[in-house]
């Protein structure tokens, strides 16, 4: 986990959001949200179901645009999607997984898309998926898919790495593995934002909790 993790020189903040509004369908999900995250900081994003955690992560990954407000990531304007995408990676749920490809094929493809080298077999072994490496992703259990997400994190962590629910669906060993992988990303220099419903776990990696409620940080 050492590729491309250095933040741009002179950027004290990985994230600066001011007055961000995001609308999904008829509802405003984020309602004037402000957030600062320093370079190298690890923050856990908490909030009830539907509070807007995934929406905020998608905004930061430049998969959604605000209808109002300003944002900068490492000093780049949030609207500069190319620069943002070079520095940010979002890992979550079944995002970016191709169900008809095997875990090994998925990881190889993801590395190729990012123009990055990486040891797919080692990453799969690390997350305990070597036996399932040749099975199609659609036939994996929810916990196995989560382990595949952790393998992607090992291979594709970026200066700002956004992780959506890394502990969900995992057994006790898997949760421990998730903690170790997140710690490694942190030690490699990543700024981390971790959306989770298990603050007792995520606060083992993050030094700060941010509670999302009513479309703003409380
Ligand atoms: N594509 C969409 N179209 C319309 N509304 C959406 C869409 N995606 C999410 N929403 C709504 O946006 C709100 C925030 O959803 P989001 O997934 O960001 O919440 P969350 O905090 O991540 O929840 P959870 O803890 O359940 O994962 C919810 O009310 C949800 O119904």
TrEMBL record:
<keyword id="KW-0813">Transport</keyword>
<dbReference type="InterPro" id="IPR027417">
    <property type="entry name" value="P-loop_NTPase"/>
</dbReference>
<dbReference type="InterPro" id="IPR003439">
    <property type="entry name" value="ABC_transporter-like_ATP-bd"/>
</dbReference>
<dbReference type="GO" id="GO:0017004">
    <property type="term" value="P:cytochrome complex assembly"/>
</dbReference>
<keyword id="KW-0067">ATP-binding</keyword>
<dbReference type="GO" id="GO:0005524">
    <property type="term" value="F:ATP binding"/>
</dbReference>
<dbReference type="InterPro" id="IPR051782">
    <property type="entry name" value="ABC_Transporter_VariousFunc"/>
</dbReference>
<dbReference type="GO" id="GO:0016887">
    <property type="term" value="F:ATP hydrolysis activity"/>
</dbReference>
<dbReference type="InterPro" id="IPR017871">
    <property type="entry name" value="ABC_transporter-like_CS"/>
</dbReference>
<keyword id="KW-0547">Nucleotide-binding</keyword>
<dbReference type="GO" id="GO:0022857">
    <property type="term" value="F:transmembrane transporter activity"/>
</dbReference>
<dbReference type="Pfam" id="PF00005">
    <property type="entry name" value="ABC_tran"/>
</dbReference>
<dbReference type="InterPro" id="IPR005895">
    <property type="entry name" value="ABC_transptr_haem_export_CcmA"/>
</dbReference>
<protein>
    <submittedName>
        <fullName>Heme ABC exporter ATP-binding protein CcmA</fullName>
    </submittedName>
</protein>
<feature type="domain" description="ABC transporter">
    <location>
        <begin position="15"/>
        <end position="218"/>
    </location>
</feature>
<dbReference type="InterPro" id="IPR003593">
    <property type="entry name" value="AAA+_ATPase"/>
</dbReference>
<keyword id="KW-0201">Cytochrome c-type biogenesis</keyword>
């Amino acid at each position: 986990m050492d590729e491309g993790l250095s933040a741009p020189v002179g950027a004290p903040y990985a994230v600066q959001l001011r007055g961000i509004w995001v609308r999904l369908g008829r509802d405003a999900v984020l309602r004037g949200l402000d957030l600062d995250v320093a370079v190298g900081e690890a923050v856990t994003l908490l909030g009830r179901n539907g509070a807007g955690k995934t929406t905020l992560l998608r905004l930061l990954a430049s998969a959604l645009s605000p209808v109002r407000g300003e944002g900068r990531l490492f000093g780049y304007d949030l609207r500069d999607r190319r620069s943002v995408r070079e520095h940010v990676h979002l890992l979550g749920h079944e995002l970016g997984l191709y169900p008809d490809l095997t875990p090994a094929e998925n990881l190889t493809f993801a590395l190729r898309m990012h123009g990055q080298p990486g040891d797919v077999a080692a990453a799969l072994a690390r997350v305990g998926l070597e036996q399932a490496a040749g099975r199609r992703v659609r036939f994996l259990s929810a916990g196995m898919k989560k382990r595949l997400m952790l393998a992607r994190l090992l291979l594709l962590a970026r200066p700002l790495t956004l992780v959506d629910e890394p502990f969900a669906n995992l057994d006790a060993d898997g949760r421990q593995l998730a903690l170790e992988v997140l710690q490694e990303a942190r030690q490699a220099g990543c700024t981390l934002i971790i959306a989770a419903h298990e603050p007792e776990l995520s606060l083992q990696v993050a030094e700060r909790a941010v509670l999302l409620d009513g479309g703003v940080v409380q």
